[in-house]
Write a structure and sequence with these properties.
Layout: H1 8-28, H2 34-53, H3 57-64, H4 72-79, E1 82-85, E2 98-105, E3 108-115, H5 121-126, H6 134-149, E4 154-160, H7 167-171, H8 174-186, E5 192-201, H9 202-206, E6 213-217, E7 221-223, H10 227-234, H11 241-248, H12 252-257, E8 263-265, H13 276-295, H14 299-311
Parallel strand pairs: 3-4, 4-5, 5-6, 5-7, 6-8
Antiparallel strand pairs: 1-2, 2-3
Helix pairs in contact: 1-2, 3-11, 6-8, 10-11
């Protein structure tokens, strides 16, 4: 049976509750088990840290989708001294699945673009579960052109299962809208820093990943399609999804080894959703490290490096 939820923390919580119950029971029966229980608690903590150092890819997929992971609104609120949200694509309407605007990070004006998910059912319906429509991508393209006009660096946060595949979205030019963002970002004459914070799914996520630096949180994933979709399409067997996740090389660690990701941002033990402050602090440090480097780069040189970075993806060697 394929695991559909990462329930390790819940099992750990249940185990600790049992230990607490045993401790209370021993006191009532005048047994002193405090030293033994302390040893067990220490062992549990050691095993927990080891467990999170050896997660399999499918477990990272499940962690990347955790509904309580910090999202775009959390990052913007914590990172920006000032923030102005800009809405609408000047063509069809506003797409709440995309949040975009101008923010100030430690005195540096940035155009910030991100997908937006909800923390509950009501919010997820409002934000379409983080799956943008074409107007969302057209809004992004409008803000990218504005950033270039005013020479503002671009910061993107990536966390989406993919672009919305509905009939209305297709009728309004979903594929075209995404392709225009890809082309715009590839030739944008301002620095672009992209961070995959959760699930980077399909071409919908790729739209905000064309950048000069691509970073990933340690438990994030990034793929052209979900493991479920690939298992169903290639193997006609959804039960092999864990095997597919392993084969796809979609974790931050895999992508770093392949040279696609420039840095892995550490997460707290247990995942980003357990400690917002530590996660945001790590992201802030990463931005401080990479943003000045690309901001200080000559624009022609920046574009040349971006081109080479993109062209180098997928290179391989054959035995002669």
């Amino acid at each position: 049976m394929v695991k559909r939820q990462f329930d390790y923390e819940q099992k750990l919580k249940d185990l600790k509750a049992k230990l607490e119950e045993l401790n209370d029971l021993s006191k009532n029966m005048q047994f002193d088990l405090s030293s033994e229980i302390e040893i067990l608690e220490h062992k549990i903590q050691e095993d927990r840290e080891l467990r999170y150092q050896n997660l399999v890819p499918w477990e990272k997929v499940l962690l990347s989708r955790h509904p309580e992971r910090p999202g775009a609104v959390d990052y913007i609120a914590a990172l920006c001294d000032e923030w102005i949200e800009l809405q609408g694509d000047r063509c069809f309407g506003e797409d709440a699945a995309m949040i975009a605007g101008i923010g100030s990070f430690e005195g540096q004006a940035l155009t910030i673009l991100s997908y937006r998910k909800g923390k509950n059912t009501k919010e997820n319906l409002q934000y379409n579960f983080g799956m943008p429509h074409p107007e969302g991508y057209r809004k992004i393209q409008r803000l990218l052109r504005q950033a270039e006009k005013f020479n503002r660096p671009v910061l993107t946060f990536i966390d989406t299962p993919g672009a919305y595949p509905g009939i209305g979205a297709e009728e309004r030019g979903q594929a075209w809208a995404i392709s225009q963002v890809l082309m715009t970002m590839a030739g944008l004459r301002v620095p672009v820093l992209a961070i995959v914070t959760g699930e980077g799914g399909s071409g919908g996520a790729l739209a905000l990943a064309v950048s000069d630096r691509l970073l990933m949180l340690a438990n994030a994933v990034f793929a052209v399609a979900s493991p479920e979709a690939c298992a169903s399409i290639l193997w006609k067997d959804l039960e092999r999804v864990e095997e597919m996740a392993q084969a796809m090389k979609i974790t931050a660690q895999d992508l770093y080894e392949l040279g696609i990701v420039d840095e892995i941002i550490a997460e707290p033990v247990g995942g980003a959703h357990l400690d917002y402050e530590a996660t945001i602090a790590s992201i802030k440090d990463a931005i401080r490290k990479h943003l000045p480097v690309i901001v200080g780069c000559d624009r022609d040189e920046l574009l040349a490096r971006r081109y080479e970075k993109l062209r180098s993806i997928g290179k391989f060697k054959t035995d002669e």
